Amino acid sequence: MKTLTVVFGFFAILIANGSASKVRYDNFKVFKIKTQNETHRQMIEKLAENTESFNLWRSDGKEVHIMVSPQKLIQLQNLTRSYQLPLEVMVSNVQSFIDVEHSPKTTDDLSFGWTRYYPLSAIEEFLDEILAEHPTVTSGIDIGTSYEGRKIRGIKISYKEGNPGIFIESNIHAREWITSATATWFINQLLTSTDANVRDLAENYDWYIVPVLNVDGFVYTHETDRMWRKTRQPVEGSACIGADPNRNSDSHWMENTMEHTSAEITSKSCA
Length: 271
Hints:
By secondary structure, the chain is α+β, with helices and mostly antiparallel strands. It has helices spanning 38-47, 73-82, 94-101, 120-133, 177-192, 196-203, 215-223, 262-266; strands at residues 29-34, 54-59, 63-68, 87-91, 138-145, 151-157, 165-169, 206-210, 260-261. It has a domain at 29-92 and 234-266: Alpha-Beta Plaits (2-Layer Sandwich).
């Protein structure tokens, strides 16, 4: 099997444009903005609140990465210019990266590997193949059913009794396909690698690995909106769909005031 290749590393929350076909992000740009103080950072972050045109990708004490629609580009340029904030293009066309992921298949794509991304059905087929090929050390696990009725499947790898256990889940955020690719690659390594260090890890721990935790959102990213992040369950008393699965609890949430991820910031809207 092929080594893991990172084809697409840009993950952000974008909003559907209302079309029945797949959502597109033609000429959406991502900018890096060097901020001079906390006030400037908060000002840029505020653009991403309750809007479909701006989306925060990263924010810390030194710079902000923000996605902007073509319709709001001039607004962002005028704002940063008025405060003399350096503006650098990171991604000139978000859709171009999405298109690369969906390039025509080649003969190299006939078997499961790590040079492209796969839908949920192919990942589940991979799990089935692994279970069939390694029946003495693997067993399937089912941790529940999603809102839309899909099984949330995983695999246990155990070479001997008495091992401590390690649990790994991937794709809790639907659009972060690299995580499920990493999980399946890791499963393969635990079972096939001849490296002494890998063998030590594989055989002295019990591994519980779920390649796709947010199954509904993951399917939605493949079929409708590549940049969807959350689950797909309606929110009671709100027009919003879905919740951010790892930001869905009151306990110790938003404690870090110096640096926020895009998930924490944009959770204020329906993004």
